[in-house]
């Protein structure tokens, strides 16, 4: 059917943990330049789905295709083109903002570019302060500065707006817009409303609580 | 990008992380010294008796120091999500893991080897024992670090893993400690000590070849939750 | 009542300390050099040889003063910490912080000279003698305080935590000394103890006294110097330190 | 409300937390046994020699086991914010802290005391030594737990505190280990062992009176950041 | 001026950390039945202020009065009437939801009341599951169930809406409304808009970034 294969395509993905079906036959497609928002109440499996898609978890059943090829054939290529930002933001408390960022970007990068990125996330005076001295939102901003420096095509963002103030949320939205305009794709989960138009939604239903209630 | 995420990058980062807390760099050295002074206090100050047990005691201390510091090898990376980031990075994890283990050895095994002559002095080790003891420690603590990292990987997802780690790793330490203390013991007794040292070397070679692979697959396994 | 405490609080001011020590530090430094030089020359060159130990006994002129000060230094450090905890005085924390490395070095010196001395007299560098053991533990106590001081990034927490540890250590020092003494007598007949110092010949004893005095002065000078450095680095943003810096650069420029 | 937040509540909660990880309850016991088997391996299998060093070895093991498990005493409470909740609760914290320390002792000191006859057997301890050794361990490990808790409180806000904790606490352990091993040694040599035991008891009394207070004030201090 | 002293009144509160003035002369009043929202961008000191008010931190300067009396005179009474929920929610991962809750409430409480509270936060099937098996939002809900069971007069909530879905946010708002209607007070910080009318705002300005930018 599809002539040009979509960037990421998921067929019938299932995930079972301790005999509980957390993710039940999810099918979805993400094409270039698209933002997909995974929706659902607390505990519906958004984080689990994102971790499955980034291959941090292995699905019990189902397939993931990247640009038309099965993930097992192009794992390396897929992983090199992917960025994941989870509930835990991988910010080391004892390192400074600058050190953290240069580490997380994972490619040689010059100092000015780093400082410029930290400037954009409003951490101008803080680049050489250890991160445990930053506030919750500032720590989150250190992790988000990655978005300004990352070449990967697909971003997986799990609740990127946590702990951010309004200006920070706008900044992340701007980043996503720029990324999408450049042909990249974003899969994100959030409970806050997004002020962007190009967002497609995918809803997960809470398997367990619908069963239990 | 990949080369940057390799051995040297992790080595540098971990050394920097350890160095950030300045108090921590010296502490393996001091732990070693301190634990060694306990032995005469608990046992006997008699030099004749101490001389016999010195190599064994030093090895038991090396082992405990390695174990004590091992549980934080992956723990903080696990808790703050860095480990997950490592696991979804495209390249093989063997080199990064080896980098982390090397950083651990550089901050435990190496200083312990360097301070061991002082301990020999405290425990009245005969002169013939110093060189073999240091050689044995240098090689053997490498094995200790690698095995401790394996244990740390196995227990990383448990909140209170440090005691469990000890339980898992200790049995694996048995051969190392036997040959390690034998190296010094042999030379004190005037025997050729190259035999046990060679065995230690062989164990290190095998451990370097196999442990990182095992650690990587164990990490993939245990961090899934 | 107020006038009574004024001097106390003024003494707590780093600036007051810095300025008043500037005045008499040179004198104290000169006295130290004088005492140490004369003590050393007297002890090493002119004091008579020991009947049993020959010339090796001369190490006593370093060993004994260092041992004295190592112990006294710990109590000074703990006292400074206690004053800091009770009266929240910044200066006394600085004194505590600077006394720790100084004391550790002196303890190490005492251990080292003792060990070197032990080789000719006891036949080995190390022996588990009671006093030797408690000295080693004192070194560990110092190191604990030092490590704790540098492990915290917040200076305030670091100061208070190491002050508490130093205080706990002082409670323990007598216990440690007693228990180690007791342990020693339990385990070992007193073959090589030096608990009863042989009554020394006055010709040997007088230079020792001079050296001990000299070490006390040296300790004071070293402590004051490092506290002054600490003050400058902590108060570098205040106007009076800025003024000092300006003065110093002015003088340098003038000299050129 | 206040009574509920007291000694028993914390004791019960901590025991439950420890019990949740079933592997952890047995591990101090096994650690103790395992570490004791290392001694003959590393040192000597000679029963005559072992006999002399048995009480000392058992005490060194008790001490290391206590230290190994101490660093998690407050760590998880600190990380998840429970400690902050404790600190802003209205009542005095002395009882809760004592409850936590008791839970620690019940899961390290007590099992170690109970298993010590087995270790005595492994290390050929003479018969006369068993009872005094157990009595000494029961009292002495209480002191060890209290002092370890003080060290844990001092290092709770440091990420890699376990080695630093060792460094801080070890010198304070010296008198305990001396009198503890002396208790067994005396009875083996046919002397009255009530002396050192009484001293241990006195130290425990002082530690129970002072340590919880010190721990509370240290916790208030170090958790401010 | 004030005849009836206000519940909580703060005069000229300052807090300095490593020579940086984090909180600079804050003056505020909270009266019975009032909701005060502390506002400000990331790093402006909201968390620090709340921790000062709960006496988890000690101010370098300034006074706090509770019902007209200085805090040093009525510390015990104040602390017994206070509830604080911070960025870290004090939920023990290895304990079950029920055990966590019964512990956190800090008073003897019967099982049915506990289960009812867990029901209200939509954790019906989860009461005896260890908390590390819950999702981020579900863990947060365990901590929030305290609000349903707590007698204290003043609540201090630091970003209570983090990780909650829309329904969860509504629930917390409902709780706060009920508390306020019963004469209690709430001091909260959040970056999300609140859909309640009785909210008074207090704005903090970011000392450092205003200086740096
Ligand atoms: C590492 C080894 C040694 C250490 C740690 C050590 C430690 C000490 C200490 C702490 C003191 C001061 C005691 C006090 O406060 O009164 C002292 C004094 C002294 N030491 Fe040593 N010592 C060592 C080795 C030796 C040796 C080998 C000798 C010579 C045989 C020696 C001879 C003396 C003498 C004569 C005094 C002064 C006598 C007195 O005031 O009681 N020490 N030593
Ligand atoms: N480690 C785990 N072990 C077992 N079950 C888990 C684990 N983590 C999550 N679950 C369960 O899996 C389901 C989905 O969890 P997940 O974290 O994916 O939800 P979520 O949609 O991200 O929720 P939230 O909005 O709260 O972040 C939940 O019912 C949860 O109880
Ligand atoms: N532990 C600490 N040590 C030193 N400085 C700190 C520490 N925690 C926070 N700060 C600094 O104090 C200021 C206020 O931090 P605080 O956490 O109160 O901000 P906040 O308003 O809660 O921000 P957010 O919205 O991100 O939670 C920040 O500039 C931060 O850098
Ligand atoms: Mg989630
Ligand atoms: Mg905050």
Throw out a few tags for this protein.
heteropentamer, B: 225 residues, mainly alpha, C: 256 residues, 0% strand, globular, binds protoporphyrin IX containing FE, binds magnesium ion
Q: TL;DR?
A:
The complex is a heteropentamer, with 2 copies of chain A (213 residues), 2 copies of chain B (225 residues) and 1 copy of chain C (256 residues). Chain A is an alpha/beta fold. Chain A is 30% helix and 25% strand.
Overview of this protein structure:
By secondary structure, chain A is α/β, with parallel strands linked by helices. Chain A has 2 domains: 1-81 and 152-213, P-loop containing nucleotide triphosphate hydrolases (Rossmann fold), CATH 3.40.50.300; 88-151, no CATH class. Chain A contains 7 helices and 9 strands. Chain A is globular, with a radius of gyration of 18 Å. By secondary structure, chain B is mainly alpha-helical. Chain B has one domain. In chain B, α3 runs antiparallel to α9 (161-188), α6 (94-107) packs across α8 (130-155) and α6 (94-107) packs across α10. The two termini of chain B are 28 Å apart. In chain C, 82% of the residues lie in helices and 0% in strands. Chain C starts with a helix and ends with a helix. Chains in contact: A-B, A-E, B-C, B-D, C-D, C-E, D-E. At the B-D interface, α2, α3 and α9 of B face α2, α3 and α9 of D. Residues 46-47, 87, 158 of chain A line the site of one magnesium ion.
